[in-house]
Amino acid sequence: MNATPALPAPVPVVCAVIIRGGRIMLAQRPPGKKLGGLWEFPGGKVEPGEAPEAALHRELQEELGCSVRITQALAPFVHAYDWGSIKLIPFVCELAKGSTEPHPHEHTALVWVEHEELLRYDLAPADVPVVEMLD
Ligand SMILES: Nc1nc2c([nH]c(=O)n2[C@H]2C[C@H](O)[C@@H](COP(=O)(O)OP(=O)(O)OP(=O)(O)O)O2)c(=O)[nH]1
Q1: ipTM at complex level
Q2: What CATH number has the domain bearing residue 33?
Q3: Nearest residue CA, atom 29 of ligand 1?
Q4: pLDDT computed for residue 70 by the predictor
């Protein structure tokens, strides 16, 4: 008999590194939520049975009202927080032709920053390895 309790599976979360004119979008999480005030790549939890790409398009419509074109899928990885683990599934994207300008429906603020500036922001800890994957 195995006495070790099974750990809950990591929660799958998609995020978008949206690049425009050489700058990358960061979005600030609202205060009062987990990781409140920290900066992240927009995205969110994948629903059961949903493809990661579909989750990405759905979350970006909900959060920013914009549409994107995925240009690269980065390697997913697991990050452990003290409340549980997430499996972060990052995509590099650009705004789709004809997309509405992104607006923060759920975030406190959006900024477009140079690659070199990304690590100067207080990022959600799981996002630091994503920055390191970007060339
Ligand atoms: N959207 C997004 N979430 C991220 C990133 N990095 C990171 O650690 N996360 C975490 C924050 C949340 O705990 C979870 C995504 O949840 P969510 O954005 O869909 O929803 P939420 O804030 O209501 O989640 P929660 O408070 O219930 O954890 O993944 C990121 O770059 N983008």
Answers
A1: 0.93
A2: 3.90.79.10
A3: 13
A4: 98
